[in-house]
Amino acid sequence: MKFFQKYTAACLLVTGFLIMWEVCARLVDLGFILPAPSDIAYKLWEIKAPLFLEHLPSTLVIIVIGLFISIVFGVGLAVWMSVSKTAERTFYPIIISSQTIPIIALAPIFVLWFGYTIWSKVVVTVLITFFPITVNTYDGLRSTSKDYRDLLLTMGASKKDLFFKLQVPASAPHFFSGLKVAVTLSVIGAAIGEWIGAQAGLGYFSRRMMTQFDGAGVFAPIILLSAVGVLFFLLVGWIERRTLRWRKTK
Q1: How many domains are contained in the chain?
Q2: Is 66 exposed, middle or buried (0-12, 13-18, 19+ CB in 10 A)?
Q3: Which of 103-112, 194-203, 235-244 has the highest mean pLDDT?
Q4: pTM value?
Q5: Mean pLDDT score across all residues of the chain
């Protein structure tokens, strides 16, 4: 109840959009192009067994592995760049430049390299999620107050103390902001990888339904992918609130 009271405007907007979509879909009556939301919901219920038992777990594994790799290497690289000017000048331009390359164009290359294994999809997910985690964490590590730094130094703080007692707490909100972006992008990365080449997964299932001109079947896994992204975002937000209790929020 509190959720609907807080997000009344958003709920009304979504409800109005779904009603308009339903009406337009019924008027057009071209289910293979524009299926009605009710048809999509029915299709999702009809194919729930293969979606939830086979394809959803496959996609979740890709997302979790991709995010884990991005967090480990992204945070590690951000820390390295924050303490080494050489590392910053070497890797930061490369990280920025990597975002100008269309990932969907590289996905078929990864399929050639790794085949239809899970790693071709994981690499796509990592390439998409690595950037926001690395850049946000790096910016957070550099956002420490000079006054606080000078205060700790006058109190005899070592470089280790400065890092763990000043830089890490200051960068934590930035890290979680980047992670929130990354978890939503990870769903896109996994879907792109599965769309290009896979034997299971929600993206693969959507592409298979498209070859059968099943509009509702195409939309059903997309709706599920969206729900996964929202749940991951909410999970990160919950972890952030539990971890950063000291942070003042409205």
Answers
A1: 1
A2: buried
A3: 235-244
A4: 0.86
A5: 84
Query: The tokens of 231 are what?
Result: 């749940």
CATH number at residue 234: 1.10.3720.10
Residue 226 lies in a domain: yes
Domain that holds residue 171: 37-243
Has residue 106 been placed in a domain? yes
Any domain includes 205: yes
Cα(85)–Cα(81) distance, rounded to whole angstroms? 6
For the chain, the residue count is 250
Residue 159, both tokens: 């470089």
Q: Please check whether residue 71 lies inside any domain of the structure.
A: yes
Residue type, 133: I
Per-residue confidence band for 250, with pLDDT thresholds at 50, 70 and 90: very low
Residues contacting residue 56 through CB under 8 Å, at least 6 positions apart:
202, 224, 228
